[in-house]
């Protein structure tokens, strides 16, 4: 199980978004190792280790979450904008929660530009996807930008 755990961590930290399926393979291996046990699990571990080791690598998600956590600890990150706050009760609606929210699924491509970050954080970018291989770029990198005026 120790090896399966390490392979899963590597699939997340080191392979990351360069091959998101590596995490699926590693997690499936960990579950199978738990159910099957040794000595047969050695084959599963070998396959998963080879898959993860030969996958393209990207630590962009790892770096992004660390930068975000650092900002939360050390910066005034502001308040959640009112228009994206949930308003499950009438009193919250009366306070302006959810007012002006644009539901992305009502727009072409299921995307609409609107501010999601607090004012203090506008322009902040944590995730740098420049190291994503071209073969999966379209799956995870295709912003479908539609202007508010085009609704």
Q: Can you walk through the features of this model?
A:
- This protein has 151 residues and is mostly helical.
- It has two domains: 2-54, no CATH class; 60-150, Orthogonal Bundle (post-AAA+ oligomerization domain-like), CATH 1.10.3710.10.
- The protein contains six helices and no strands.
- The protein has helices at 2-15, 21-36, 41-54, 60-74, 90-94, 134-141.
- The radius of gyration is 21 Å and the shape is elongated.
- The model is unreliable at 145-151 (pLDDT under 50).
What's the CATH class of the largest domain, please? Mainly Alpha
What spatial form do the alpha-carbon principal axes imply? Answer: elongated
Order of helices and strands: HHHHHH
SS element count, helices:
6
- What is the radius of gyration? 21 Å
Query: What fold name goes in the CATH topology slot of the largest domain?
Result: post-AAA+ oligomerization domain-like
Mean pLDDT: 88
Q: Please bin the fraction of helical residues.
A: 40-55%
The assigned structural class equals mainly alpha
The major sheet is characterized as: none
Low-confidence stretches: 145-151
Report the strand count. 0
Percent of sequence in beta strands: under 5%
Distance between the termini: 51 Å
CATH homologous superfamily assignment of the largest domain: DNA polymerase III clamp loader subunits, C-terminal domain
CATH structural architecture of the largest domain: Orthogonal Bundle
Task: Quickly count the domains.
Answer: 2
């Amino acid at each position: 199980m120790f090896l399966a755990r390490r392979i899963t961590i590597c699939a997340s930290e080191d392979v990351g978004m360069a091959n998101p399926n590596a995490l699926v393979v590693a997690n499936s291996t960990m579950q199978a190792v738990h159910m099957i046990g040794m000595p047969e699990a050695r084959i599963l571990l070998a396959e998963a280790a080879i898959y993860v080791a030969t996958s393209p690598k990207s630590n962009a998600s790892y770096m992004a979450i660390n930068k975000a956590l650092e900002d939360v600890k050390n910066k005034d990150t502001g308040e959640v904008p009112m228009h994206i706050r949930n308003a499950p009760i009438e009193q919250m609606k009366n306070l302006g929660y959810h007012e002006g929210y644009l539901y992305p699924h009502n727009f072409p491509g299921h995307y609409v530009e609107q501010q999601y970050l607090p004012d203090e954080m506008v322009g902040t970018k944590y995730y740098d996807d420049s190291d994503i291989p071209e073969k999966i770029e379209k799956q995870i990198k295709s912003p479908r930008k539609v202007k508010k005026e085009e609704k």
